Amino acid sequence: MTCAGQQTAAVAGLVQWHLEEAGRAEREAGNTSLPFRRQRLLSAARYHRDCAELAREELP
Predict the structure, then answer these.
(1) CB neighbours (10 Å) of residue 15?
(2) Keywords in UniProt for this one (predicted)?
């Protein structure tokens, strides 16, 4: 695999990881009855989705 191919694979993996973390945080937020915890989890989910979008912009 070329260096560019390795970089693309790494960035794609990073995008996938951030999307998985966002989904996990959203599911956990839906399962908690604690309002401040829900707020923190939803904030974390937004962060991970934003990071995934930024990383996706780096893909060719």
Answers:
(1) 19
(2) Plasmid
